[in-house]
Structures are given as C-alpha cells and as structure tokens.
C-alpha cells in the first residue's frame, strides 16, 4: 500500500471574490499545483463537471459542506456561495440532482465488502469520508433544523422580518444570544471559547494531527475576567501551497496598534487577492520578514494571560501556524440563528455605527478590522446580551430593513441573506423536492408546495418507485434502510480489516542466504517507498504470504483497487528528489493532462519525502506519463496508485495489529464466521452486492447532466460511532469511465 497521499485544491482566478474558507481545506502540506493548471480551465465541451481534487483535509466532508454543494447545484453562484471543498463547473448545465442514502451503512461496510460494491467503486471517481451522523442526517445535509423537519417546511425566502425598531415584535427568550448567555451581563471568561468549541470550529489545538508544526504562544497563565484583550487580524494571499500570511495586525485593549507587519510567504504568490487583502506585488517586494519572525515577535509581545479577539479567528491562527488557548471570536460571540455568522462589516455598522471595509479602499485594513473586533467584544461585555438581543440583528441584516432604516442596501452585499436550505433554494426557483423512503424511517419531510414525500413498505418498493418518480423531479432524495452492524460484529469486522490491510501492505521475498547484506537489502526495498519494518526469517525454504481465509482475496483486492476509478488517473512515484518539481515543470510538454503534483512532507522535519503522486485528467495520460517517468531518462520507480486518499486517515485510525511471525494462521473471529455460514438475504455482504447493482441500474437510467451522490452516512450509538462515506459524480462526466457492469 502506498504512503498517505496529501490533499490539494484548485486555486481561484485572480480578481474573483475570495471566500472565507477554513485554512485546513486549502493549505495541504506538500502540495504543488502544476504551472499550466494554476487557473480554472474551461472544459472543451459545455457540460457540468466536478473537480478531481477535493480541498478537504483527509478528504472528510462535513454535512454542512455537503449542503453547500447541493444548494449551489440548485441555484448557482449568483444566488448562493460556491462550495468551499470542491469545484462544480458549468452548474447551469446540470439537469437534475439525485441523492441516494444507504441508511445504516458506513465506510466500514464499503471496504469490508469492497469486492461486492463493484459498480460504486468503479463508477464514481470522487470519494470522501463523512463524519458520524447526528440524530437527523437528512436535516443536516439539506440545511434544515430538526424542528423544521418535524413540522411545517420553511416558507419562501422572500418573507418579511420583524422591524428592528419595534421591541414588542422581538421575542428575547428565543434570541440565540439570550439562549446561550442568558439576559444578565457576563464576565470575560464566559465569552471565551471552550476547548470543545475550539475543536468544533476548527481552531488549531495542541495534539491535533494537522497542527504538529504549529507554534504555541506559551500563554498559559491564570486567566481572570480582568485579563488583557488583544485584537488580532491577518491578511492572506494565495500561493502555490494555498493560503499564506502576508500581513498581521495586533491591537491592545486601549486601542494602540502594537504590531503591524507585512510578511513575505515562502512560496510563489499566484494571487495577491488585493481586493480583500490590500496587498500588491509592489508593496510586498521589498519585505524580508518571514512567518517565523512574526511568530517570535508575537510570543514576546503577549503576556501569559493574554486573550486574543478576532472575527473568524481560527483562520488567523492557522495562517500564523500558532496555537493559543484563550480566544474570543466575535463571529461566534454574536450568536446567530441556525449556526450562521454575521459579517464583521455588518456588526461594525449595526452595533458600533462604524463604516469599515469601504468599497473605495484597496482591500481590508487589518489594523482597522482587529480594532473593530476588539471594540465589539468590549461592547458585549459592557452592555450585556440583553442589549444585543434588543437590537434584533437578524432583522437589521435584511436588505429591506436596512433600506427602511435609511441605509443603502447596495453597501451591504456581504450581509444579504442566502437561502438556508435546499428546500428554500428550490422554492425560490419554483421547483419541488422529491423524498422517497421507508415507512419505518422516522425522518419527516411533510409534503407541501415544494416537497413531495412517498413512504414505502420495503427497500424493494423504494427501488421500484424511484425508477418511476426520479425522472419527474429536478431534485430527488432516495433513502434505503439497512440494519447496521451490531457492536460485537463491528469490533470483529475492524479486527479483520486490520489484518487484511496489514497483509496487503506486506511484501514476502526470498529466500536469502545467511550472509546476505541486510543494509543493502533494506536500501533496495526503500527505493520503492518508506518501510515501516523489515523482518528476516532464515528458518524457511518457501516464501509466500500466509494462506488464510482473510488473505485468499488479497491479490484480487489489489487488482480491483488499481481499477478503482479514483486511482486509475493517479500514479505513484518513488525516488524523487528536491529538484523533481522543477524538472517536471521544465518538461511540462511531456505530461499533458497533468492536474496536480502531490509532494508529501514529513510532518516533523518538514522535509519533502522521496515519493510523490501525480494526478492526471485521464487514464491514458497517466499511463503515458508512467512509461516516461520509469524510463531510462528519469529512472524512477512507480506504478498506478492503489489507495484512495480518503482511505488513509481511516486506516490510521484503526488500532495497530500486534506483530505475528510469518506463516502463523489467523483464525477468523467466531461471531462473523458463524454469520457467514448462514448467508441470509439481508446479510451485509449480500446486501452490498445486491444494492450496488440495483443502484447501478438506477444510475444508468438517469439522464445526462445529473449530479448523483451516494451517501453511506455511518452509524452513531452508545457503543461507538462509524464514519460514513460519500461518492459522487455527474452522469456525463463519468460516462467515459463507467465500465460495462452487466446490469
């Protein structure tokens, strides 16, 4: 099995509006984009297509991010923000959206019965991990609150809001700020984010896998309500690595700016995003200050009990690559309904009466933004939650209310309300959602003007109804229900998976003489990639993988992994050196169709590893490049990739299997051994084979230009949770890779 592939993403074109995206989604360590593919390239034919490189760290996509994609698929960029974790080109050429939910199944199901899921693994080249589901998975992915799924559906987004000046129309008890903080004034400690909240909102934390190279501020003193506040804001640009720091401003509680530094990124800048950062090439050219310099300066400036204040502060700390335990985030302090956030510009106007980030300026002023966030925090502490709630910020955020209050709605484009759910998106364009599920499913989407729900007695009936109804609706959700693994069976399945993947990652070679040079032998094997361990056994004359029930299909699995649609266009190379990227770019004409160069780095040393992955647009391009790179001119070792990127993080999460001497027979866990002897029609292995084929038949019946998602939500119970898995593709886009399945 190859080492973990790093993640990468496509960069936006210059001049395009920058989205405030969590840094973990775009700053993948070691990733380099090919020079000829730095900008979005238009497809040859005008048809919808998805990007092949997902932005998500470890390829995990949250339920909220899925909702982003679904809303964008319905309305397009003119009405809702683009999804932050992938790219959907030519959305207006999408004809429909179909979501299949396999309730009760997880990522463990998919890889435990990988051979049985034949159609799904070969047809969909975009796969990603899903976090364990909440109590209402469906509500999460279409953007509804639980109370909405059980009751009436939300009305059209054109509905009016209560007057911001009429206190009688404001129910303070229902205000999210009152619900979180109460109505009385609170101390500064109450406004700090807890460790759990910091984890939820993606703040860098000590011990997090993606923060191993981050620097702690060493602020670990005793915190009190009188601890000093410091406003912080950073500006970033886009480099070949992703988003990197170009300016930092730190403002003390008295309003004095104690630090305002320009920073020169280490990597080549591909977009200064001047309209937001205010940074230009001319401004940054003479700068010599580096990230490590401002890290050292910030550590020296902050007292042990310093509290950092900012707006979406997680992004600033990740740009700084620093960890700080005491933070107040004004985008979370001023709590908003349904987990949304107010823009800093809006809060400055509505709370403080200040105009910031004005359109006549070249970008944002980091010092102004830091001071504004600090002032907003002090206002909250001075006047308390009740005063904030009485302002009725939700109403003020409405363009209609701003206009009635004498403000120009044209200056408030950043706070215009977007549809919150897929249902609202469909309703705004006069379309309906079709929801098909089983009677036993407790999820409720009551039929209304823009949603039709049908409940069936069995999965078979759901399948038959889907074949008839899906073509009639622009957006369909079809949910099948399966019995999840029992806790005992889940534990045993995990054990079997650990054994199987360990065996697949083990090479048996020999026999060798007692006088063989171990150092030379290890050097030979290391030329193919990193080695976890090597054991020399001299008491054998036959060298082969131990034959057990769990290892019989290892060779078959390796062959099928190579044919997996996500791996077909990717090649793995070993023996690359620091100059490989430059050499590759110099001869770019030899590697047409190259989409991404993934250069992993050692998380501790930061040095580039001696292997890489190259992602191509087509299998033919990958095959041609592999032939060139393993030839006499390049002299590299390589092959087509075997493991999808989302799989690595999941396999790392499995506890390591204890080492055992080669040849030792592994007895399958009794619980599953007994279960496999009585293969009922509803056994997971049979269900995987049967429903992969049935969904394949449904997929083949879809019209061209259909965005199709297959979601295995995962499971969540008192005995533990299992991560889910998502697969997606567009019917036209996938036609060239979907094999003949004999469906």
Automatic annotation (TrEMBL):
Taxonomically, which superkingdom?
Eukaryota
Residue limits of the RRM domain?
569-639
Q: Which InterPro entries match?
A: Nucleotide-bd_a/b_plait_sf, RBD_domain_sf, REX1-like_exo, REXO1/3/4-like, Ribonucl_H, RNaseH-like_sf, RNaseH_sf, RRM_dom
* Bias type Basic residues, positions: 10-22
Kindly list the GO CC terms recorded for this protein. nucleus
Region of interest (Disordered), residue spans:
1-23
Q: Which Pfam families match?
A: RNase_T (PF00929)
Listed GO MF terms? exonuclease activity; RNA binding
Q: Which UniProt keywords apply?
A: Exonuclease, Hydrolase, Nuclease, RNA-binding
Q: What is this protein called?
A: RNA exonuclease 5
User: Which species is listed as the source?
Assistant: Sciurus vulgaris
* Gene (UniProt): REXO5
């Amino acid at each position: 099995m190859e080492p973990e592939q790093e993640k990468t993403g496509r960069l936006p074109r210059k001049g395009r509006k920058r989205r405030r995206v969590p840094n973990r989604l775009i700053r993948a360590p070691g990733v380099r984009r090919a020079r000829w593919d730095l900008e979005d390239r238009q497809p040859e034919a005008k048809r919808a297509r998805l990007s092949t490189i997902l932005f998500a760290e470890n390829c995990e996509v949250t339920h909220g991010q899925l909702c982003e994609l679904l809303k964008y698929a319905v309305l397009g960029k003119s009405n809702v923000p683009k999804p932050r974790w992938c790219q959907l080109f030519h959305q207006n050429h999408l004809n429909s959206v179909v979501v299949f939910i396999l309730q009760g199944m997880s990522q463990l199901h998919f890889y435990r019965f990988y051979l049985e899921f034949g159609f799904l693994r070969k047809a969909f080249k975009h796969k990603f991990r899903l976090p364990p589901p909440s109590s209402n998975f469906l509500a999460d992915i279409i953007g509804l609150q639980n109370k909405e799924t059980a009751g009436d559906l939300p009305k059209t987004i054109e509905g009016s809001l209560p007057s911001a000046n009429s206190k009688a129309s404001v129910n303070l008890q229902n205000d999210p700020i009152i619900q979180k903080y109460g109505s009385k004034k609170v101390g500064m400690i109450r406004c700090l984010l807890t460790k759990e909240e910091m984890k939820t909102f993606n703040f860098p934390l000590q011990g997090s896998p993606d923060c191993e190279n981050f620097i702690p501020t060493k602020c670990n003193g005793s915190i009190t309500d009188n601890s000093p506040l410091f406003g912080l804001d950073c500006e970033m640009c886009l480099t070949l690595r992703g988003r990197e720091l170009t300016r930092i401003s730190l403002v003390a509680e008295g309003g004095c700016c104690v630090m305002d530094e320009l920073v020169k990124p280490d990597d080549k800048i591909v977009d200064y995003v001047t309209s937001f950062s205010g940074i230009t090439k001319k401004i940054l050219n003479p700068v010599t200050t580096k990230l490590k310099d401002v890290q050292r300066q910030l550590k020296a400036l902050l007292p042990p009990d310093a509290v950092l204040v900012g707006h979406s502060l997680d992004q600033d700390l990740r740009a700084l690559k620093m960890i700080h335990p005491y933070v107040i985030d004004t985008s979370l302090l001023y709590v908003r309904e349904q987990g949304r956030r107010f823009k800093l510009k809006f809060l400055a106007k509505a709370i403080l009466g200040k105009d910031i980030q004005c359109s006549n300026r070249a970008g944002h002023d980091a010092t102004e933004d830091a001071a504004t966030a600090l002032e907003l925090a002090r206002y909250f502490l001075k006047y308390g939650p009740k005063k904030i709630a009485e302002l009725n910020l939700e109403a003020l955020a409405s363009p209609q209310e701003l206009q009635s209050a004498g403000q120009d709605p044209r200056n408030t484009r950043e706070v215009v309300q977007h549809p919150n759910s897929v249902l609202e998106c469909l309703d705004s364009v006069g379309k309906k959602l079709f929801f098909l599920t089983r009677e036993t499913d407790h999820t409720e989407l009551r039929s209304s003007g823009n949603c039709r729900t049908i409940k069936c007695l069995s999965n078979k009936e759901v399948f038959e109804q889907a074949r008839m109804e899906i073509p009639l609706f622009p957006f369909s959700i079809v949910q099948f229900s399966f019995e999840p693994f029992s806790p005992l069976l889940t534990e045993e399945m995990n054990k079997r998976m650990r054994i199987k993947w360990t065996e697949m990652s083990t090479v048996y070679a020999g026999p060798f003489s007692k006088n063989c040079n171990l150092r030379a032998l290890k050097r030979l094997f290391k030329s193919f990639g990193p080695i976890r361990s090597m054991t020399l056994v001299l008491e054998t004359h036959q060298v082969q993988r131990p034959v057990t029930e769990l290892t019989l299909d290892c060779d078959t699995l390796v062959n099928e992994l190579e044919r997996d649609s996500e791996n077909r266009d990717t090649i793995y190379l070993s023996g690359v050196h620091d100059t490989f990227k430059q050499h590759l770019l110099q001869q770019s004409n030899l590697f047409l169709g190259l989409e991404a160069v993934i250069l992993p780095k050692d998380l501790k040393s930061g040095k580039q590893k001696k292997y890489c992955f190259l992602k191509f647009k087509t299998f033919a391009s990958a095959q041609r490049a592999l032939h060139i790179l393993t030839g006499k001119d390049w002299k590299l070792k390589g092959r087509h990739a075997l493991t999808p990127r989302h799989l690595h993080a999941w396999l790392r999460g499995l506890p390591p299997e204890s080492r055992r001497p080669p040849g030792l027979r592994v007895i399958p866990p009794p619980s599953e051994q007994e279960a496999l002897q009585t293969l009922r029609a509803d056994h997971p292995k049979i269900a995987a084979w049967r429903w992969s084929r049935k969904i394949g038949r449904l997929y083949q019946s879809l019209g061209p230009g259909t965005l199709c998602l297959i979601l295995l939500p995962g499971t969540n119970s008192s005995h533990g949770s299992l991560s889910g898995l998502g697969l997606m593709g567009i019917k036209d886009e996938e036609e060239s890779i979907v094999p003949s399945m004999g469906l």
